[in-house]
């Protein structure tokens, strides 16, 4: 059986005037359904570039990214947008909530795109906001909430359409230690409960240890891949 995500010989180059910047060089890996992966590396190593390629936000310069047996780099923009709506949730470091919308409205956005009717959307969004501990904040706008609360709203938004895959780029990068732990517990709980695949980017080894597999990224290459599940079972 083929893997949920297959990355085959992927490179990503950027051109800055005369200079060619190598963000990723010949990356290959596979990811399985229901597992939790971490892309770990220092700043500038290529983690966000790889995550953006996996999520279809950017296209590789070379190589293939295959998700659910479909090469996403080959899709038209409209097909890719549909594919993303149906299969992918994304959590950003800076939350990326719509400032004019309430928590409830922000969480509902993916369902709006899918044509779910208002009453059902509101019901599901409010249930999910309850599940992330924000039942008292449904009508708050982003600037009326703390960073941790905003990130919980953005997590609820990433999960609301039940995507098979959730990507998160340094989701706790702007949070304090205690809130980081709460947010990581929340993301992992939600993904495990629904057997979703989770891919998190971080530079923090502590966060990486929540994952089943740590993929070490260095200078645009995979340095090593470490399975953490065996150690966990031994505990
Ligand atoms: P990380 O997320 O690990 O900090 P990135 O994937 O953001 O690293 O960046 C990897 C490398 O690619 C860096 O050297 C960065 O400067 C470069 N890079 C990323 N995005 C662009 C871009 N849009 N244009 C030019 N260079 C970029
Ligand atoms: Mg980054």
UniProtKB/TrEMBL annotation:
GO terms for molecular function: ATP binding; ATP hydrolysis activity; transmembrane transporter activity. GO terms for cellular component: membrane protein complex. CDD domains: ABC_MJ0796_LolCDE_FtsE (cd03255). Keywords: ATP-binding, Nucleotide-binding, Transport. PROSITE patterns: ABC_TRANSPORTER_1, ABC_TRANSPORTER_2. Residues 5-235 form the ABC transporter domain. The keyword Coiled coil does not apply. Pfam families: ABC_tran (PF00005). The keyword Nucleotide-binding applies. SUPFAM superfamilies: P-loop containing nucleoside triphosphate hydrolases. Belongs to the ABC transporter superfamily. This is Putative ABC transport system ATP-binding protein.
């Amino acid at each position: 059986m083929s893997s949920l995500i297959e990355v085959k010989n992927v490179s990503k180059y950027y051109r800055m005037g005369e200079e060619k910047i190598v963000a990723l060089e010949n990356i290959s890996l596979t990811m399985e359904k229901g597992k939790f992966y971490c892309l770990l590396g220092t700043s500038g190593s290529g983690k966000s570039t790889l995550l953006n390629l996996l999520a279809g936000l950017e296209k590789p310069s070379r190589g293939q990214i295959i998700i659910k047996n479909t090469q996403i780099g080959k899709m038209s923009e409209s097909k890719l947008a549909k594919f993303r709506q149906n299969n992918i949730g994304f959590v950003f470091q800076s939350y990326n909530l719509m400032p004019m919308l309430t928590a409830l409205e922000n969480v509902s956005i993916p369902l709006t795109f899918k044509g779910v009717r208002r009453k059902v959307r509101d019901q599901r969004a409010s249930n999910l906001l309850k599940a992330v501990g924000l039942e008292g904040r449904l009508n708050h706008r982003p600037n009326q909430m703390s960073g941790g609360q905003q990130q919980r709203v953005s997590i609820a938004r990433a999960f609301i359409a039940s995507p098979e895959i959730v990507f998160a780029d340094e989701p706790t990068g702007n949070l304090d230690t205690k809130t980081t732990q709460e947010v990581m517990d929340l993301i992992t709980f939600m993904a495990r409960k629904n057997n979703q695949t989770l891919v998190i980017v971080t530079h923090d080894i502590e966060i990486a240890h929540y994952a089943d597999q740590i993929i070490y990224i260095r200078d645009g290459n995979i340095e090593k891949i470490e399975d953490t599940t065996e150690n966990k079972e031994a505990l």
